[in-house]
Specification:
Radius of gyration: 14 Å
CATH class of the largest domain: Alpha Beta
Low-confidence stretches: none
Structural class: alpha+beta
CATH architecture of the largest domain: 2-Layer Sandwich
Mean pLDDT: 95
Number of strands: 8
């Protein structure tokens, strides 16, 4: 999955742009599965699913819409947008898509790791 190195992040948001382009074909950072919150001069915080060992979101989903298959997969037909997955994420790495109202969870661009490839500061790395 991913390893985050916040001290290297320049807050350029290229990762957010690439993510939304990869998943929705548009530059829409609010629809990105990775996002940066920063309050200068403090170190930025990068939020993204880190594929925790227990997959708390999968276990918490009352509709059974989430499955672990090398990344978290969402079955949109089962998802009722209740937001329990967001609340259950121990790293704050899930948010709700403002357009489709479904969870935005990193799927590693289906093993292409585009945010890792495009991050000029190397603040996002592939782990494992």
């Amino acid at each position: 999955m991913l390893k985050i190195v916040p001290s290297l992040c320049t807050e350029c948001q290229i990762c957010m742009e690439i993510c939304s382009l990869a998943h929705f074909g548009e530059n829409a950072p609010k629809r990105s599965r990775i996002w940066i919150e920063a309050e200068w001069p403090k170190e930025p915080h990068i939020f993204v699913c880190l594929a925790c060992e227990d997959h708390d979101c999968v276990q918490a989903c009352p509709a059974g819409a989430l499955q672990w298959e090398d990344w978290i997969r969402l079955d949109r037909n089962l998802c009722d947008a209740c937001g329990v997955c967001v609340e259950s994420c121990p790293v704050g790495g899930i948010r709700i898509d403002p357009t489709e109202h479904t969870p935005l969870i990193c799927d590693t661009c289906q093993d292409e790791f585009r945010c890792v490839r495009w991050c000029p500061a190397k603040a996002i790395e592939r782990s494992g």
